[in-house]
Amino acid sequence: MKQRLDSSFEVVIVFSGGEGNVSAKSALVFGVLVLGAFSGCVGESPPPPSEVAPSDPGSDDVSNQQQPATDESSPVVETQVESSGESIELDEAVGKLLTDLGEGETEVRIAASTALNDQVAEVIAQHRDWMRAGSVAQRRGMMLMMTGKAQGFPEETFSLVKLALVDGDSKVRSIGVQLIRQLSTVQAAELHPRLLTMMKDNLEESGIRNSILRLIALVPGDGLATETALGELILADDDDSTIKQAALQSYVKLAPVEPAIATLISVLDTSDNNGVKRTTAVLLGKYGSKAKAGVKQLGALLDVEDKDLQGAAAQALARIGSPSIDVLVMKLDSPNRVTRQIAIYTLGVIGPSARDHVRRLEQFITEKDPDTSSIAKEAILNILK
Questions:
Q1: In 10 A of CB 47, how many CB atoms?
Q2: Which of 2, 44, 301, 377 has its CA 20 to 30 Å from the CA of residue 351?
Q3: Is 109 exposed, middle or buried (0-12, 13-18, 19+ CB in 10 A)?
Q4: What's the number of CA atoms in the CB half-sphere (13 Å) around residue 41?
């Protein structure tokens, strides 16, 4: 039995220090300050359909193509393939069903899908002809028809995906990328070079590139080439911020700890995009005390106006723990009230390791500022536990 690629993986973010906890009251107060800090880092919008003429996917295994069976009761349309001048005969009735499936309204698509199910084996056997000579709608229909049928037709699905990844239509390519999750690991490994090429191409649809970035860590292949490509995307000056965020999350799954931490710190130093920096801060915090080299950069983010970014930085400092204490104590002198409150709260999360600074925290317990006083009291109680 062939192994299948696991299609689910995610990053889970929990705000907690390794050395202490805070009460529900304090967490509620602080939650107002950093609302939204723990939302997901990367999202994807589906790529818009692009009615582009199909490109020739090449002559790969053309000599081994199955010729479509003809049926006297069903008209056959002869189509010329421009690149080779080759004539391909396509069944008109099947073509109508594929067109309906590819671009029809919901009810029309359901009817077309049902009708195609009655002759699925014959249509799939002719998939090369439809992908080379069919219209955009027909090629989309062929891809949609194959969705959910990959395990019953593993070799045909693999062949279809190879053709889809070089298709001129973005929706066809997008479905092709999604079908990779249903291939065997051996089949997926053969597609690895093509996926790297698409991933690095900044002319490719960003939605498709994001899908590949989330998939690439699961695809067997040249690990060093993948790591290098991800690093280049992360440090590129002119790429989409969502691409960088997705690349960061895949990169830390593959790269050794020390180079990964160094790269994340470099992103904090050089990036001017708050979303990218927020993702970087969260990922850096996942290394715990090993990421202590980044506390200076994370501390600087406590002064920004972006509440999500402030919260992500505070979260990372809390997870790093004791190495963060000196930077947090410095932030107690910040002219920004919110920054001071975040520093007080985070010291409380770190817990007993911050015991030497309890008297400093006591100075924030005043009648003039009841909110800060409440946060300071809770932090002190947590430190002294």
A1: 18
A2: 301
A3: middle
A4: 29
Q: Are 319 and 16 in contact (CB under 8 A)?
A: yes
Spacing of C-alpha 47 from chain mean position: 14
* 91, containing H or E segment: strand 86-91
Phi/psi of residue 119, nearest 5 degrees: -135, 30
Q: Where are the domains of the chain?
A: 53-168
Write out pLDDT tens, residues 272-325: 999 999 999 999 999 999 999 999 999 999 999 999 999 999 999 999 999 999
Residue 349's Cβ-count burial label (10 Å; 0-12, 13-18, 19+) is: buried
Would you say the pTM of this structure is higher than 0.90?
Answer: no
| Residues 194-222, mean pLDDT to the nearest whole number | 95
How far apart CA 30 and CA 20 sit, in angstroms, is 16
The Cα 339–Cα 336 span in angstroms is 5
Residue 157 structure tokens: 């699905």
